[in-house]
Amino acid sequence: MKGIIFITGATAGFGEAMARKFASEGYDLIITGRREERLEQVQKELIEQYGIKVLPLIFDVRNKEAVNTIIPMIPEAWQNIDVLINNAGLALDFSTIDEGNMDDWDTMIDTNVKGLLYVSRNVIPWMKARKKGHIINIGSTAAKHVYQKGNVYCATKHAVDALSQAMRIDLLPYHIKVTAIHPGAAETEFSLVRFKGDAGKAANVYKGFEPLHAEDVAQVAYFCTTLPPHVCINDLVITPTQQANAYYTYKET
Ligand code: NDP
Ligand code: 8X3
C-alpha cells in the first residue's frame, strides 16, 4: 500500500476518475458521495481491478452534523490520510443576480465552500499530528475570472482559491502541501447538473471544441502528488487547448 487518498465526490466526473487513477497506482482510497449505489459500484470495481482497499463514506458535504460524525469515526488505520482531495461541488443554472434562485445560491455556497471547510476541518488535524499531508482543492477557471450570469458559482470558486491560499499559510509549519487545481470546461455530469437534467443544453456546452476529459484532470492531480516533499505546486490552471480562460473559448462552427 502506497498511502491513503481521501476523495470527496467520487461517484462521477473528476472524483471518480481520480479514484481510478490513484487506485491504479496502488493507493488505498476513502471515497465519498451521496449516491450510495454508485459509490458502492466504484468501490467494487476498484477492489476487483486493482486489489486495493476502499472505504466508502456516504454523506452530503453540506450536512455539518453528518460530516462531523462520520469522518471522526473512520477506523484508526484509515486516519493516516496522505492526500485529501476536496472535489465535491456543482454549479446551478445561469442568471443575473436580480433574477437568481436563492435556493440554488444556498446549494452552491453550502456545497462548494462550506462543505469543503467541514471536511477539511475534520481531516487536517490528523495531517497536522503527523506533520505530513497534501490537500488538493478543486477550484475552476471560474475561480480566476467571473463570467456573465455565473456570479454565485464564480464567487464560490473564488472562495476556494482564497481558502487554498489561507490553508497553505496556516499549514506551512506542518509540512502540509496545499494545491489548488483550476480546470476549465470538462465534459462530466457537471453541465447536466447545472442545467437540472436537460441533456441537450448540457451537450451544447461542449460543441465546437474538445473539452477536457475527467481523466486529464485525474492525471494532473496525480502528478501533483508525485513531487518530492520539498516541492509543492500551489496553483494550477488546466483548460482545453481551445479555451483561454473562463469566458473565452474558441468554438468551431
Ligand atoms: P460531476 O457532477 O460529474 O461530479 C460531482 C461530484 O460531486 C459527484 O460525485 C457528486 O456526488 C459530488 N457532490 C455534489 N454535491 C455533493 C454534496 N452536496 N455532497 C456530497 N457530494 C456531492 O462534476 P465534476 O466532476 O465536473 O465536478 C467536480 C468538481 O470540479 C466540482 O467542484 C466542480 O465545481 C469542479 N469543476 C468542474 C468543471 C467542469 O467543467 N466539469 C470545471 C472546473 C471545476 P453525489 O451526487 O453522489 O453526491
Ligand atoms: C466549471 C467550468 O466554465 O462552467 O467550473 O465555470 S465553468
Automatic annotation (TrEMBL):
Pfam family, one: adh_short
GO molecular function: oxidoreductase activity, acting on the CH-OH group of donors, NAD or NADP as acceptor
Keyword vocabulary terms for this entry: Oxidoreductase
Coiled coil: none
UniProt key word Oxidoreductase: yes
Protein's recorded name: NAD(P)-dependent oxidoreductase
SUPFAM superfamilies membership: NAD(P)-binding Rossmann-fold domains
PROSITE patterns linked to this entry: ADH_SHORT (PS00061)
Chaperone among keywords: no
InterPro entries in the record: NAD(P)-bd_dom_sf, Sc_DH/Rdtase_CS, SDR_fam
Protein family: Belongs to the short-chain dehydrogenases/reductases (SDR) family.
Domain of life of the source: Bacteria
